[in-house]
Specification:
The structure holds 2 protein chains of 2 kinds. By secondary structure, chain A is α/β, with parallel strands linked by helices. Chain A is 40% helix and 17% strand. The radius of gyration of chain A is 17 Å and the shape is globular. Classes of the chains: A alpha/beta, B mainly alpha.
């Protein structure tokens, strides 16, 4: 079975395949890049304590590649460039499946994001239906 | 490599363990928040939230807001699941349109994050204040971070941010406007400060909201005046404020525009 990488944007058992062995990695590089202090780490850690997840500290890619061995990794998609870069690096070493996160509103075709009002003009009817 | 510990007898024991494990993070921010992490706490907050009252009261510091943002930011709840639950409580989506549109703001920011990546740290447009980026200071003044500006409202918000990791949205807007427009500090300095402390700090929501206030991602700068702040805070700050006779927010909007900007246009 693939290892489930639970990263800071998907702290829920609902988002990953049921029964998978899940891991969270506190990576000093990420913590420094995001500027996280004790408040945030504690909030995330308390959340992890309720979840069936093993918590590690170290280099994300190195650790996950070692733990996954030949089994590969499954994780949830994110817009975070730091996390996306780690997914790309991980892919050079093991197979990685990236699952889309739950969809809030499905918008087909080109979505103009220049201002919220333009996005909302497309999303409103679907969200308030 | 051994996993980190998962059994603790108390929050204090957990905090002590984390202080030992993450000294660099403690240096950035040594405080513990009274806000609890976890699904159980998120569910408790969701059960207490009355979405029907949100639209009418949300701008007031004591208004009915969900307090779910840290849990949504970290995926403990998805936007879709919060919306589904709120609609079930209210009876229809139309009845809670404002709340749903605020959930949509997060979806919108995330879509932009996917498009722009680290570009969310750049000015997306020019400031519409008549000033250029070079006119704004690059660093956050220490009196703001330390809650020592002498302005009771701003000092309270600064201390609350540090001690709890949460601020009401209106307080965030007032504080951001004060930092950028009254103190003429680059929004990036304020955004970095918020991201260190906010439990719901998400680079996209945070930075692009700062840019909205600054006017680098909006048509005009956001400003407020004393009347607005007093109205939505029930006047709780002014009576004990040492600066009440020289309040920098005591003015009409046209006067503030003339005072703060090189061109008119704020509202």
């Amino acid at each position: 079975m693939k290892l489930a990488w639970m990263h800071p944007d998907c702290l829920s058992a609902d988002w990953l395949p049921p029964g998978s062995r899940a891991f969270f990695v506190f990576d000093d590089d990420y913590l420094a890049a995001c500027g996280w202090g004790l408040k945030r780490i504690m909030f995330v850690y308390e959340t992890l304590l309720e979840l069936p997840v093993e918590i590690y500290r170290g280099s994300t890619v190195q650790l996950l590649a070692e733990l996954a061995a030949d089994e590969g990794v499954v994780t949830v998609d994110t817009p975070d460039p730091w996390l996306l870069a780690r997914i790309a690096e991980l892919r050079e070493r093991v197979a990685v499946d990236v699952i889309p996160p739950p969809v809030f509103v499905e918008l087909k075709g080109h979505v103009n994001l220049q201002r919220f009002s333009r996005y909302w003009s497309k999303a409103e009817a679907k969200l308030l239906d | 490599m051994k996993p980190l510990k998962k059994q603790f007898s108390s929050r204090a024991e957990l905090a002590a363990y984390l202080q030992q494990q993450f000294p660099a993070a403690v240096e950035r921010d040594p405080d513990m928040s009274p806000w609890l992490g976890g699904l159980a706490e998120a569910q408790r907050r969701l059960a207490e939230f009355k979405p029907q009252r949100y639209a009418a009261t949300r701008n007031h510091l004591d208004g009915q807001v969900s307090g779910l943002s840290p849990y949504i930011r970290h995926g403990i709840f998805s936007l879709a699941s919060v919306k589904t639950r709120a609609v079930a409580v209210a009876g229809s989506a139309q009845a809670i349109a404002k709340f749903i549109s605020e959930l949509a703001w997060r979806d919108y920011w995330q879509r932009l994050y996917l498009q722009w990546g680290a570009g969310i740290w750049q000015d997306r447009e020019e400031y519409k204040t008549g000033w250029t980026t070079a006119d704004y200071a690059a660093e956050l003044p220490a009196d703001i971070d330390g809650g020592r500006t002498g302005l009771a409202c701003m000092d309270r918000f600064s201390r609350e941010l540090r001690s709890t990791g949460y601020l009401h949205n209106h307080a965030r807007m007032w504080l951001a406007a004060y930092v950028v427009h009254w103190r003429r500090v680059q929004w990036q300095a304020g955004a970095r400060w918020f991201l260190v402390h906010l439990l719901d700090g998400d680079p996209a929501s945070n930075n692009l909201s700062w840019q909205w206030v600054a006017s680098t991602f909006s048509h005009k700068p956001y400003v407020f005046n004393r009347e607005n702040l007093e109205k939505y805070s029930s006047g709780r700050f002014c009576p004990d404020c040492g600066a009440k006779t020289e309040c920098p927010f005591e003015a009409t909007y046209p006067d503030l525009s003339a005072r703060l900007f090189q061109i008119g246009g704020a509202a």
